[in-house]
Amino acid sequence: MKRALIAIPVLGVVAVMAGEAASTFNSRRAQDAQKVYQKTMEKAVKDSSATVKKAQELYRKGLETALKEAQRAKDDKETWRINKGLDEVRGSMM
Fold first, then answer.
1. What distance lies between CA 94 and its chain's CA centroid?
2. Number of structural domains found in the chain
3. What is the pLDDT of residues 37-79, one digit of tens each?
4. How many other β-carbons are positioned within 10 Å of the β-carbon of residue 89?
5. Cβ-contact 48, 15 below 8 angstroms
6. Do 1 and 92 form a contact (C-beta atoms < 8 A)?
7. How far apart are CA 18 and CA 45, in angstroms?
8. Domain residue limits at 81
9. Residue range 9-25: average pLDDT?
10. CA separation for the pair 85, 25 (Å, rounded)
11. Sign, Cα dihedral of 2, 7, 86, 91
12. Cα–Cα distance for residue pair 20/24, rounded to 1 Å
């Protein structure tokens, strides 16, 4: 769970960096470089978001499987801990 919380600020930094190239350049080379930079940064943000989302989904599925096992074993403490983890991951997926 801590990794997901760390990834979200990183995405914010990348998004801010993508917006930093808002200067207007006169030369064609500088304009072209800016366009490449902006497209690359947008792709990086999109790819990072997709990776975080996939990791969260895998984590959720793993916890749901573990929850079923804990319930079958009638381990109330572990069931409670897993439910708490599921609540956290579901909240961060929104």
1. 11
2. 1
3. 999 999 999 999 999 999 999 999 999 999 999 999 999 999 9
4. 19
5. no
6. yes
7. 9
8. 2-15+24-92
9. 60
10. 49
11. positive
12. 11
Distance of CA 50 to the CA centre of its chain: 7
Rounded Cα–Cα distance for residues 56 and 69 (Å):
20
**pTM value surpassing 0.90:** no
Q: How far apart are CA 74 and CA 67, in angstroms?
A: 10
* Amino acid in position 27: S
Per DSSP, helices labelled H in the chain are: 2-20, 28-72, 76-92
Mean pLDDT throughout 2-27? Answer: 61
CB burial string 51-75: b at 16+ within 10 A, e below: ebeeebeebbeebeebbeebeeeee
Residue 38 is encoded by which pair of tokens? Answer: 């902006």
Q: Give the pair of three-digit tokens for residue 62.
A: 């793993």
d(CA 11, CA 7): 6
Q: Is the pLDDT of residue 20 over 90?
A: no
